Amino acid sequence: MKSLSIFLLTTCTMLTGCVSYREGQNVDLYTEIGGKETLSKVYGLALTRIYNDPVIGHYFEGVPKNDLRRELTEQTCELIGGPCDYEGKSMLEAHKDLSIKDSEFFLLVEYVQQAMRDIGLTYQQENRILSHLAPVKNEVVYH
């Protein structure tokens, strides 16, 4: 009986340890990166560079940087599974008359990627975020 108790105790301990380990490894992306605070930092850095870029900066003339930062943070938060509800314009509506080219879109993405790296996100986290944002391209780029 004593050896059965030890076996059960050992088994329960091992299973609990495995579950805890697995839960720690399965943290959602939003939580893993540090939530809205991190996303806001990313867009703060990226937008400063984007607004000053000679190729794409003109698209943002008259657009308040802090408003856009908040909107992008909310939208990305929702897209990656965070607790946000983006209520802004659809990307198609916001970009319909701009005739944005592929090369301009990719330049903007490069600024966002660099900002992710600058604040310390891993390439894996960066790629996971970008995989959620990638479908937006079809609504932004002129066809």
Protein model, in words:
The protein is mostly helical and 143 residues long. The chain has one domain: Orthogonal Bundle (Globin-like). Helix content is 69%, strand content 0%. The protein is globular and about 40 Å long.
**CATH homologous superfamily annotation:** Globins
Oligomer description: single chain
Strand-residue fraction? under 5%
Count all strands and give the number: 0
* Gyration radius, rounded: 21 Å
The overall average pLDDT, rounded, is 84
| Helix residue percentage | 55-70%
Instruction: Fill in the CATH topology.
Output: Globin-like
| Level-2 CATH architecture | Orthogonal Bundle
Order of helices and strands: HHHHHHHH
Tally of distinct domains: 1
Indicate the structural class. Answer: mainly alpha
Brief summary:
The chain has 143 residues and is mainly alpha-helical. The protein has helices spanning 2-25, 29-33, 35-51, 65-79, 91-95, 102-118, 123-133, 137-140. It has one domain: Globin-like.
Keywords:
single chain; mainly alpha; Globin-like; 69% helix; disordered N terminus
Describe the secondary structure blueprint for this structure.
Blueprint: H1 2-25, H2 29-33, H3 35-51, H4 65-79, H5 91-95, H6 102-118, H7 123-133, H8 137-140
